[in-house]
Amino acid sequence: AQSVTQLDSQVPVFEEAPVELRCNYSSSVSVYLFWYVQYPNQGLQLLLKYLSGSTLVESINGFEAEFNKSQTSFHLRKPSVHISDTAEYFCAVSDKRDTGGFKTIFGAGTRLFVKA
Amino acid sequence: DGGITQSPKYLFRKEGQNVTLSCEQNLNHDAMYWYRQDPGQGLRLIYYSQIVNDFQKGDIAEGYSVSREKKESFPLTVTSAQKNPTAFYLCASNHWKTPYEQYFGPGTRLTVT
Hints:
The complex is a heterodimer of chains A (116) and B (113). With 116 residues, chain A is mainly beta. Chain A has no helices and 12 strands.
């Protein structure tokens, strides 16, 4: 069965420093990969996604993630974080169900805390 | 504006009572999902529905029930059989053209005492 591992439960970082949130998934023939962000007591918002093509994907607010098939990883990076980036980040993998449709598996989440 | 609404935002119930959480979407999405979120555990799938009048159990369906009488609505009932119902509940949906990508509602925080 598919699984997603987020290697860090919490990542504290100073404002304007770079950050990397790590995500590994179990191997599959083809998967779709996502990062979602969740602010306190809110739903999840899609941050970026990898469906096919270029292995480096970017979001509008400066985050990027790189799909690495050989290492089955999809790490999220930002070169300079802001206080407003403080949130919980979820890595997710979708692949096809045997019975039709897609199943999405979420990692346990990484809480990013940006300090002034 | 299109989106997913969940109501209420906060819900308090006494142990032994059934409670129904609302989820409505006006995105014309076909599939809808219910997830449960507990601290440090990510999201776990309770039930999902790919078409009206049909739904499937997810990984943690025990103690929950759903209905899908309309495309726009997918209410979740937390029954008294659910042993640990206090959690944050998230509803999601997707379009048949992008079945791998889900859109989420704002969530309902249920507290049972």
